[in-house]
Amino acid sequence: MAQVLAVGEAVARIAYLSSDLLISVQTSLSTDSEFSKFLRQYVDNKASSLICSDVPELQHIRHNADPLLSVYQAVRAGKLTTVTTDSSVLIKSIPHLYRLAQYPVVIHVSLHSAGFPDYSDITSIRNVGFTFLQSSSLQEAQDLALTAHALAIRSGKGVIHFFDAANSKADQPIAHESRRLVEEVLDVSLARQYQGMKSEDSSLYVSEGRPQVRDIGLRDTAELVEVKGDSTATSSESSQSSASSSSSDRKNSSGGASEAESATTVDSQAKPVSSEDIDFICESIWSQIRGQTGRKYSAFNYTGPANAESALFLFGSDPGLFAAEFASATQADFFRHVGLVTPVLYRPWLSERLTETLPRSVKRLAVLEQVRRKTTKWGPVLLDVLMTLKASGSQALPTIVGYQLGYLEYTTITQALSGIFQNLLAQSPIQNLEVGQHGGPTPSATSVNNEFQLSQPKLENAYMKILDQLFAERLHIANALGSKNAGVEEQSIKSSPEYGFGSLLARKEHRKRFVSEVEAAAKTRNFTTNSPQKWLSQWALAAADAEKANKLAPEVIQRLSTDGSPAASKLLGSKGLFYKESQWLIGSDAWAYDLGNSGVHHVLASGENVNMLIVDSTPYSERAAQDAARRKKDIGLYAMNFGNAYVASCAVYSSYTQVLQAMLEAEAFDGPSVIMAYLPYNREDDSPLTVLQETKKSVDLGYWPLYRWDPKAEARGEESFKLDSERIKTELQEFLRRDNHMSQLMRRHPQFHAHLSESYGSEVRKVQKRKAKDAYEALLEGLQGAPMTILFASDNGNAENLSKRLARRGKARGLKTVCMAMDDFPLEDLGNEENVVLVTATAGQGEFPQNGRNFWEGVKTSTDLDLANVNMSVFALGDSHYWPRKEDKHYYNKPGKDLFARMLALGAKQIIDIGLGDDQDPDQYQTGYGEWEPKLWDAMGVGNVEGIPDEPPPITNEDIKAASNFLRGTIEEGLQDKSTGAISAADQQLTKFHGTYMQDDRDLRDERKAQGLEPAYSFMIRCRLPGGVATPLQWQQMDAISTELGNETMKLTTRQTFQFHGVVKGKLKPAMQAINQALMTTIAACGDVNRNVMCSSLPELSDLHRDTFHYAKKISDHLLPSTTAYHEIWLKDENDKDVQVAGDAVQDFEPMYGPTYLPRKFKITVAIPPHNDTDVYAHDVGLIAIRGEDGKLMGFNLLAGGGMGVTHNMKKTYPQTGRMFGYVDKDAVHIACEKIMLVQRDNGDRTNRKHARLKYTIDDMGLEEYIRRVEELWGQKFEEPKPFHFDSNIDTFGWQKDEKGMNHFTMFIENGRIEDTADFPMKTGLREIAKVTKGEFRLTGNQHLILSNISAAELDETKALLKKYKLDNTNFSALRLSSSACVAFPTCGLAMAESERYLPELVTKLESTLEENGLRQDSIVMRMTGCPNGCARPWLAEVAFVGKAYGAYNMYLGGGYHGQRLNKLYRASIMEEEILGIMKGLLKRYALEREEGERFGDFVIRAGVVKATREGRDFHDDTAEVEEDE
Ligand code: SF4
């Protein structure tokens, strides 16, 4: 038979069987409570419940997140709800408990035992109206848990079942309560009645609770009333406190009488449940249990002789131990022949039952209450007992003596009992004796139960670290968890704002006294030397000024130390006070709930100069899901209303700089400061990526705006309110201008308010849908012909364009066409449409594109959508080769097929069969579409309409270029348009030539859409930096641009340049101008032109590098476009007439490119052997520097036709390595490059961008022919290539000295991202270095950074700075050092999967395997990209992962170590688990089987894991994963 070993399990099982909803309150979501582990198991196993028809819902809630708030909604919805918790949450939840008592909620409470359990957690809440049951053993826990649930169901009222789990640790295992017994006792049919009675009430504070089901389990009402009449005094104390509870209730609720007290109060109304009812129900439950198990229960438990004269009433732990002591007492013991009473039913307190239980012979009664803090002179249990026995009146009142019980060690129990009974039996017993240790056990006696320690996520340390960085030794945190400063053991006290505030005030007072002492001392002549006086008076003057005081402090201390007088020693006794601390109170978001807010209020109201940092951790998505009742107060607004506090709202994962600023301002502000710091997490072990994404959503959508408010700023002539988050700036500022009263913000702009209403987004969406549809209908009015509604779901625009085209062509045939995204169509209108055509692309793993997902959900799940009058057809777009594995084939065009089938199932009639467009067809999806469309017109009777104008051909990139007037387009106009963050589609193509791409933040797409907002558009700007060499000044300028105009980070790219992200449209022009002021440009950094020319960084050969770099720059300059549009658009100053171009009068001329530029991008790189750190084989032109016999640069071997971009599963596309054209002298090299580019300009494929790169032109034309044409144009010939040799394509980290004695340090910048984090302020460090160094910054092609040309004189200082900012650390695994990733999410529009944000995590997960196999120092080139565009040049890596869908990657193996050989597909669409499995296996084999010096890429080929790819055209052959052709 199954056995139960622990109380947690016994309770969890009964709770599971008896509930619809289980709320598991936990100190940490990543650490189980004693119940949650079992609850989770049952849910995971889908164990059947007796109450819930399905699997009960399990919610895990942190104990500091006001957990009982979650109960309201559920109980109102008729859900039988159970909470499992420790007792630490109870007192804080009193207001909820009063109200929840009116519902059949069961709360199982394990007494919190920080040292020993404190029963005052129970006595303090005894009057909240719940019924309280106590269990003291494993078996009791199971039986009373069942009693609790049955009692809740039968009485309709809340029950708290509490216990000290430690009591039963040594208990023997017990058998499971049989399901049959549980079912019988619970009374399932009665439970069903409750479940069917949904409360209409929707306010948080209800007064009446749920109606009680009266006719079950309770006695006849008449009898009840009669009994009530007799028993008005269940206890006078309880009636008293009921009255007080009632009045407090009224204070909090919006009126109406509270009946919270009804369970313990008797009145003549019929509805409340009386204590007799509870007594009656308990008796009936216990008799059922007794009948089946023989186990007896009653309201009070008595053990001991029936004629005992003394007894002990215990309200505390270990009754079993006490009973055993009594049983084994000898004649010599004071406690021989005594009885023990414990309450089982604690509330309602049934006086009658106690009098029945306690033998009449008892003359003396000791009442032990185990409480940690005593708040009243007489313990509440003592009063209960006293009143009962007094009221019974039938016997002489025994002598009652109260005791406060602390922690009792097992070995001292006899002694303690002797003391208790000796006192009890004394002539005049002493009341309120303390027994046991009140501080709890000494650490050696028992280990403190860690489960109850407040758990905080590691991430939360971010803010602490920043405080630490800013204020270092000056930092004093008054209530830091785990801090020695706190000095109080009780965790909840220690972390409360009140406690910390008190301690801070004391500390300030202390320092104030000290300053007076110093002032006084400065005036005396008590010192041996003269200098202390002078320094002390100086210091005393500056004591309040942190900066001055702290500067003087060491001087003063030093003078005092050498003085040696008693006066000096006295002051030195408090030498820490010479420094002025930065004092902080740190709080969690629990402070923001109603219950924790008073402390914040207290601090604000005091006006004291105290800084508070309140960390809020509610994730945006949790906010959306949570009960509307789970609301927090917005402390920021609250504090601003106070008017005297500095207030800031910040988020470290959104703006690090703003956090720094806020903290410094708060510290400087003379008065209270409140910083609301956001750090959202669902679980304590959330990855930083999740936290980042949640933060972004919150900040972007205004749930967590970033701002700073300084009420004293106005007096200084500054603005008091500064909004630091970009997107709501205008709106909020406008509001502030109109009305400075912040509280109105909540009312009038709900989107700024933390309590953003859940329905807001959907409301907006509905209105928008309706408007869009109405507008169309208005447009169509008056048109003749049949209606046709075209709805599309499109992610890359193809389905949308196709739909719009279909609509135009339909209209031309006389149809009334409407065309919109599926999600913009009101689903409820679908049944009224006559003809519906649905066009959908296929996203991710066969899913609907984003703008059709809600529509599909609606269609899929709707039960009442009647489409009987609808005619429809579907056209689907997909790629039949996208899923190479047979079992995944069904994903091909899955959304379209599903939709078609579902529409038919809902009664729609097909106009024609579904059409399938396949990217693999000769004209891609157009092939299938071309066949399908005419059939549609025929079926709709408009196939033979005469005189239809020809559809204009779709606009191509070539058209855009040609029509752009040398790259002007309407960019200028687009920039002026303030109504959108976007620019037009054509301009998006053109701005690329100017070095900027429009992007949108993909982390935010869904949320913004849900709120009816346009995507979060911003721009990426790429600089042009030939050879990747920047001066220190340029570095500082770039740093400033990223901070002020971008997203505070910079990316060092694989093409050795700076890239900024997150530049919003309004800041685009200032950013471009700032870049130009830094003597850089962005022209032709992207677009169909020659891009930034790369050059090996080569730290060790200075002269050669300088020469080669010179030629790289020369080529770059030579191939620049000539258009003046760049200057005109970005750099013209409204006042600078010189650069203004009048109208269209001035036409540009592009001698080299012509009006349509190149068919595709064109990339040139230079590598200096033996370093192939710029991947010379991967570019359109790759130049290998050749040294002459004099060691100087002589010329270049020229490779051409390399390229990385590929389309998944489109075999016509492939990566390619450059082919050898021959040797060119250095002075002719720029011309050779030009001629190669020109042949490509004239011969590249301008009809298909996927086939337009030079690699295809060369392959199509043939290498010899291409070379011939270049030579013909050039008038010169390539020479035979010179010998060269490459070693690797990675960087050499650490210090190197060149031939001139200059020093170069290559530092590791993971994936090129320059940013500050709390752990690693890298960006700050580099900025500080740039301010002082005379060297230069070289960006490497692997996205790292070389601090170059550091002279011997500068070396020490540079090393110290590198060390200070941890930039000197290159001690990473060789795999990490050799890895690189592209940007991908969130900014890259093409990304299918994470890359830069994920690769570091993946490497971390592989590092233990590397260690195990001794490979930590072995370099393996590993690269990742978010899509097959290949920005991080993955196809040349030894192992590569290329994004296929979110979380899924294609894996490639076998690239050459120095970038000379392409790799080959090994597995398609694999997820992390599989990746790790494969990699771990391969690494192990590599370690065991490799030959001397053999590289990983070579090994996997020799070992037969993959075949070698000889060149691009066999890239798709012999892949390990079979790619089927259909
Ligand atoms: S490889 Fe793809 S996902 Fe990565 S940055 Fe380039 S285009 Fe974006």
Quaternary structure state of the chains depicted: single chain
| Percent range of helical residues | 25-40%
| Count of individual beta strands | 48
The largest sheet is:
7 strands, mixed
Q: Strand order of the main beta sheet, please?
A: 3-2-4-5-7-6-12
Number of helices: 50
Strand content: 15-25%
Let me know the average pLDDT: 83
Shape summary? globular
Indicate the structural class.
alpha/beta
Low-confidence stretches: 200-270, 443-459, 481-493, 737-765, 1137-1146
- Ligands (ions, cofactors included): iron/sulfur cluster
CA radius of gyration: 39 Å
Query: Cα distance, first to last residue?
Result: 57 Å
Give a description of the structure:
The chain is α/β, with parallel strands linked by helices and 1526 residues long. Helix content is 37%, strand content 15%. The chain contains 50 helices and 48 strands. The strands form nine sheets. It has a seven-stranded mixed β-sheet, sandwiched between helices. Helix 32 links the parallel strand 26 (871-878) and strand 27 (909-910). It is globular and about 125 Å long. Mean pLDDT is 83; it is low at 200-270, 443-459, 481-493, 737-765 and 1137-1146. Iron/sulfur cluster (SF4) is lined by residues 1382-1384, 1388, 1390-1391, 1395, 1425-1427, 1429-1431. Its main location: cytoplasm.
